Amino acid sequence: MEKGDIFGVIGYSGAGKSTLLRLVNGLEKSDSGKVLIDGKDITNLSKAELNGMRKNIGMVFQQFNLLESQTVYQNIALPLIMSGMKKKEIQIRVEELLNFVGLDKKSKAYVSQLSGGQKQRVGIARAIATNPKILLCDEATSALDPKTTESVLRLLKKINTELEITILLITHEMNVISKICNKVAVMEEGQICEQGKTVNVFRNPVKSITKEFVNTVINSSIPSPLLKDLNYQDPIIRITFFGENSKQSLISKINKQFQVDTTILFASVNELGDNILGILILQLRGEEEEIKKVEDYIRSQNVGIERMVI
Fold it and tell me: Is the pLDDT of residue 152 over 70?
């Protein structure tokens, strides 16, 4: 991970995601290897040094981990009190955080009176209270409904961009990865089986588990009714557009410039962070030499292309 990343780690239950997170903040001890934070191996730190390092790491939990009998203000103030901050400074900082997470009118409310989304905002405010460099999020949205999830993800993106806090986010939802993560690692049985920029992983997933996750967000399967009538002798190609390339009128140009017939079998346009990912599956009918010219032309347009085996 690099400074400024929102790095997502995804995998099924039992893959080792939460264990990985606990290794990063020293709650789990590794059997071997190193855990490097700012170039320092935390596995060699004393207890006092480890506690000092943890001041730079905030943690957001799936089940909020708040004190239900305390107010919103008291929950957010807790890490500041423990750090020895003066009462007036704590008041100023907590008020800043309440405004930042949109809970300025809930300061005196008890946690038990809050919705799930509001509780998570309190948890996030508490996690960033001491101005950490890194924020660890363990399934931070899995207990929330889709609408609330969207608002919490926007808040995490705001924390990353405005406060310049690096985020390591654990999830089993590829939709969460697609919304805010610039990088992703896919875990299976304690191993990272695929990783890279989110855009590249979505455009060209390699491992079968990665394809399963990507398909939960971006389905690129040909509808089964169309499969019945296909002539499997004619090649089928999958084209992926990204960003500005998604605005191209590619089919129109192919039909005008080449002696082929095109049939659209599938098409979708998907949001991927701040960009657009388009997927188009075509069947081409014509002479093989002409079809190869079409494929070469598509490659020249800086879009992805592959022949599919159905």
Answer: yes
